[in-house]
């Protein structure tokens, strides 16, 4: 299993299945299970995105949960869930509404070559698993992978 660190609240939206496309600036060959790791940083752009708030509202309605206060109740530095990475392709104006055509980095510098990671079969873990993340695609430690499997199988 591989893992991908994503800033909050994007990581949460991916883990609950609301966001099925992740935008990156490189092409990957890997396909298969992918642990979704919430990084330590919050995306101000994500917090201002109406799609996040709509996803939160739908999630609460569908799961009978109490209102969640973002960003206060978001988890950071932990594996939130898993998905299947089923495709990775350059942007061609596709994958709306989550697929982007341009990516603006923290310094305000725009980069073009956007790649869409197509994600399916989201599975939110019952309990986040604390773990340090890394840039790019990375392999979680064996104990973290074992805990992911334990939670997914209910054992």
Structure description:
The chain has helices at residues 10-15, 44-47, 50-63, 142-153; strands at 2-8, 21-24, 32-42, 78-90, 103-104, 110-111, 115-130, 137-138. With 155 residues, it is α+β, with helices and mostly antiparallel strands. A hairpin with a 5-residue loop joins strand 5 (103-104) and strand 6.
How does the SSE layout of this entry go?
Blueprint: E1 2-8, H1 10-15, E2 21-24, E3 32-42, H2 44-47, H3 50-63, E4 78-90, E5 103-104, E6 110-111, E7 115-130, E8 137-138, H4 142-153
Parallel strand pairs: 1-3
Antiparallel strand pairs: 1-8, 2-7, 3-4, 4-7, 5-6
The side-by-side strand order for the widest beta sheet comes to: 2-7-4-3-1-8
Kindly report how far apart the N and C termini lie. 19 Å
Q: Provide the succession of SSEs.
A: EHEEHHEEEEEH
Low-confidence spans:
none
Helix content: 10-25%
Cα shape: globular
Class by helix and strand content? alpha+beta
Number of DSSP E strands:
8
How many strands, what sense, and barrel or not for the largest sheet? Answer: 6 strands, mixed
Q: Rg from C-alpha positions?
A: 15 Å
- Number of helices, counting only DSSP H or I runs of 4 residues or more: 4
In short:
The chain has 155 residues and is of the alpha+beta class.
Any key phrases for this structure?
155 residues, two-stranded antiparallel ribbon, 4 helices, 8 strands, 23% helix
């Amino acid at each position: 299993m591989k893992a991908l660190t994503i800033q909050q609240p994007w990581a949460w939206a991916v883990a609950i299945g609301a966001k099925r496309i992740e935008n990156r600036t490189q092409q990957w060959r890997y396909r298969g299970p992918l642990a979704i790791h919430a990084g330590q940083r919050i995306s101000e752009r994500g917090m201002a995105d109406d799609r996040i708030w709509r996803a939160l509202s739908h999630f609460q309605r569908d799961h009978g949960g109490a209102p969640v206060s973002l960003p206060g109740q978001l988890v950071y530095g932990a594996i939130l869930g898993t998905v299947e990475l089923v495709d990775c392709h350059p942007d061609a104006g596709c994958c709306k509404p989550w697929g982007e055509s341009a990516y603006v980095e923290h310094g305000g510098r725009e980069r073009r070559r956007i790649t869409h990671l197509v994600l399916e079969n989201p599975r939110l873990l019952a309990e986040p698993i604390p773990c340090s993340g890394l840039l790019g695609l990375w392999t979680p430690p064996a104990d973290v992978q074992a805990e992911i499997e334990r939670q997914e199988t209910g054992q």
